Amino acid sequence: MLKTLSLLLIFIFLNVSVFSQKTENPIQVIPMEKIPVEIEEGPFDPTWKSLGDKFKTPGWFREAKIGMWLHWGPQAIGEDGDWYAKWIYMPQSAWGDYTRVYPHHLQRIGHPSIHGYKDMLPLWKAENWDPDKLMALYKRAGARYVIAQGMHHDNFDLWNSIYQPWNSMKIGPKKDILRGWKSAADKEGMKFGIAFHGDYSLFWFQPAFLSDIEGPLRGVPYDGAKNYVGESTWWKDMGLDLKDLYGIDLKDDVVYPKGFDGDSVAYRMKDPLSHGIPDGNLKKNIDFARWYATKWTNRVVDAIDQFSPDFIYFDGGASYPFCGWFTGRGYRADATPRVISHLYNSNIKKNGGELKAMAFTKGNEDPRAIAVNVESSFPEGIKKDQPWQTEVGLGEWFYLKGTYYESSMVIHQMLEAISRDGNYVINIPLNPSGQLDPGGEQTLKDMGDWMEINGEGIYNSSAWKLWGEGSIIMEHGNLGPKQAATPYTSQDIRFTVNDGSLYAWLMAWPSDNKILIRSLQGNKKSISSITLLGTDAKVRWKQTPSGLEVFLPSIRPCKFAYGLKINGSEILSY
Q1: Greatest CA separation found in the chain?
Q2: What Å distances lie between residue 242 and 227, 452, 519, CA to CA?
Q3: Tens digits of residue pLDDT in 215-269
Q4: What is the mean pLDDT of the chain?
Q5: Which homologous superfamily does the CATH classification assign to the domain defined by 468-472+486-573?
Q6: What CATH architecture is 6-375?
Q7: N vs C: which end of the chain shows fewer Cβ within 10 Å?
């Protein structure tokens, strides 16, 4: 099996980059530059303070509660899971493990020194993609908003992009993917958002500038580093430049400890503020970051202008894009607050002075300014200080042949999130042609069947004083066999509140048709009614010092989890 120098770089380019100990918080030291991109005028200035002072979460977000992540793009063509575009250049990871994707790429496509990611893009045709059909399935499954991929780390825009010539209208499917999703969402009355992951692209393709270090093509540069001067190529004939896709070689941006062997996790970023990088290379890297951040800002503003989304989303890594570290690479700019301000001011103008839009990211300078994404997990307790959503992939984020499907884990994870006062967004990957696996379609059907019965306790709900009872909690991570095997019992209960009623969600049906809700212990006799959602069968109960005993009917009204609607004069303050 071939090896690659990529093992020396992956921690820098897969994980959160860290600065030397001299600069523990570079965000406070690096000056904030203003990106020279005009935005819509209005009450929101392109600063975190202005956004934090004035932003109010629109009502539709809590009402919607359930969303679908449309995490689909050309990386699906590998049918090999997430980050396909990067892994094809990495025979080994930094941990010394051989990767799955590299040998698959060799077998199916060819060697990355000859056939790199750029050559995969024309192979993506999206020939069976039917956004109207899919959106109807998502709506029926319970989703009230969708997050559509606008650009992933692969730096490829999925719309008729003015500022990125590497896009889906020009290469591959020759379709405006975002416009198709947007039109379908509008038909179904669903809120529409766009996800932008392109800040990673500043450095994400760095393995493409390496080469194998053994084997028949040892030392032959991968296609990102190859010199094509004087050659006629398909992308040159289209007027394309590889810099717009891969960026530039930034290897001078890192330093390795002595004896680094790929198994060590010891590494650090060179500190841009201490000029540990040679001055010429530092200037080159900062100049590139400045150029890239400006281009990124133009691309996001262009998408906002073309599609008027209800929200925008930034992956952001450990912090927001271009904050001075990680995706900023020593360059700090107002790119993120600038594009958010453009969205908010444009949305206010569109809606007669009322803000109905919002933004999501994983970090920022003012938590009041945005909603937050909690990827593949949920808080330990109730989180009400900031609007948030759990976002999770069923399997890997991009399509993986052989994905494991099981519907109960989706419902259970949704209840874990919503009981803690969050929203829940799930991605069920589409194959390269734009279709769902049969297992994915069944999952959507099962979600819809469950939501038709239980939706009243989900939509527009909020957390109670407790998120739940019981000792079993689903393991964090994307959904797979471990999550499906979560051993919930009838003692595991989650709670939501909606329209004056308390909803107790049983994560498993009791074998004796009887449960005890310990949080409702006492002899107040304040409960006036209890119903089991999905059935008219009578439910008996009695309050005891140990808790509320509920005697269930013998026939289950649905699958996976079961909702008790509890009413009473004092129930919400119990």
Answers
A1: 87
A2: 11, 49, 61
A3: 899 889 999 999 899 899 999 999 999 999 999 988 655 433 333 333 322 223 3
A4: 88
A5: Golgi alpha-mannosidase II (2.60.40.1180)
A6: Alpha-Beta Barrel (3.20)
A7: N
